[in-house]
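Hello,

Following up on my earlier ticket. Below are the four sequence lines again, exactly as submitted.
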Amino acid sequence: MEELAKEGREAFAKMDIKISLKELSATTGVSPSQIRYWEKKGYIKSIQQQKNQSHAYTIHTLMIVLGINHFLKQGYTLSAAYEKQHAQRGVYRALRSLYSRVEKVERKDDGEVLVDLGRLADQPAKHVVAQISPDYQVQLTLKDEN
Amino acid sequence: MEELAKEGREAFAKMDIKISLKELSATTGVSPSQIRYWEKKGYIKSIQQQKNQSHAYTIHTLMIVLGINHFLKQGYTLSAAYEKQHAQRGVYRALRSLYSRVEKVERKDDGEVLVDLGRLADQPAKHVVAQISPDYQVQLTLKDEN
DNA sequence: TCTTTTTGTCAAATTATTTGACAAAGATAT
DNA sequence: ATATCTTTGTCAAATAATTTGACAAAAAGA
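Thanks for your patience. The regenerated structure is below:
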């Protein structure tokens, strides 16, 4: 029963990965032309060290693009789709904060993975633990302090 | 109180994003020379459509690189570090399966985010819900079926 | 219809990446 | 110590990928 390397957990939750315009487009299904126009209009941002160098986009921006596209497909105008998406700001960072607070990840010898999600607010002696079987079925259980 | 676009949740959990060698190196702190050598030795893989085209690495490979590097820094040889890391295989996919089974994500008007993590295995009427405040403090609670 | 918004296409210029060869450092065995 | 194998660094030429801006064209709004 071995504990997972901390770096991996952090990288997984932090996700400060940068991707190219091409990859952003491929992952979201939004065309490069659209992405560049949206950036020109100020709806999304990219990182570019110097002119002519390639643009880098964060996962956060990926989420914004997915959000805008989601509402675009529902018939909203671009600016309305942006506003709709903007009303959900903070959700992904909230998910990240949930995932990054995972206290312990263990892999048992039989391949089962135990993820300690932390204490219950109103029963601090009890931890919520996810048991994930080798075929990736998840069960949530309560476990007493150990 | 608006529900989060499904695409975003899925993309977040799925993470079938591809990154460049440069980005893999920047994110992990492992040099491009190392990464290419490890690939030559068969410890990691990359996607290359045709010769001379750029290599793409998945987030899964990013995790493997972090794992190998973790044990390398502890003094293991490269092959031993790989084996150590390999013994943890399945952990990240397990985490992914945990995150992707999230049933509902809501953002309340006051900015609080509610994440329904699903039912307790032994009390199926109760759901584990994470309440995440606007300053990203997380509280786990049990809620009855609604 | 006229105008504005939004997206597509293209080519030249620039930047980024691959590839392979070789050097060099580090580890291991004799 | 010496020789050998493993591992990483450096470099330059070839190739690929990206940016940029201009313009067209489609879509939406007035």
